[in-house]
Write a structure and sequence with these properties.
Layout (H helix, E strand, L loop, with lengths): L1 E3 L5 H4 L8 E5 L2 E4 L11 E4 L5 E5 L16 H6 L20
Parallel strand pairs: 1-4
Antiparallel strand pairs: 2-5, 3-4
Length: about 100
């Protein structure tokens, strides 16, 4: 499910959220998903409000997934050219990046 933080609440919530951590989020608004460039295939999305509460979860089982993804065949990606409903992409290189 996609989540959004409205611009007016970014300064409040961004310091509370860190990459690679798990959170329990309460009191958010449930809305219909966007019609264009949807990053996930889900009918609804969550939106933070003034009442939203964020709690870090410290006890996580080893089986908890780190990443979620759906591999899409190239034929499906090609069929989505000029279609803006989904946010689709393709891996164009498998070589390590020299950063």
């Amino acid at each position: 499910m996609e989540g959004q933080i409205p611009e007016r609440w970014v300064d409040r919530f961004m310091p509370l959220l860190k990459e690679d951590l798990v959170y329990y989020i309460q009191y958010f608004q449930v809305r219909n998903a966007r019609n264009q460039y949807c990053p996930v295939d889900h009918a609804y999305m969550m939106r933070f409000t003034a009442h939203t509460r964020v709690h870090e979860v410290n006890s996580i089982s080893d089986g908890f997934p780190l990443y979620a993804h759906a591999v899409v065949p190239f034929e499906v990606l090609r069929s989505r050219i000029w279609i803006t409903e989904y946010l689709s992409g393709a891996i164009i290189s498998l070589w390590p990046l020299d950063l």
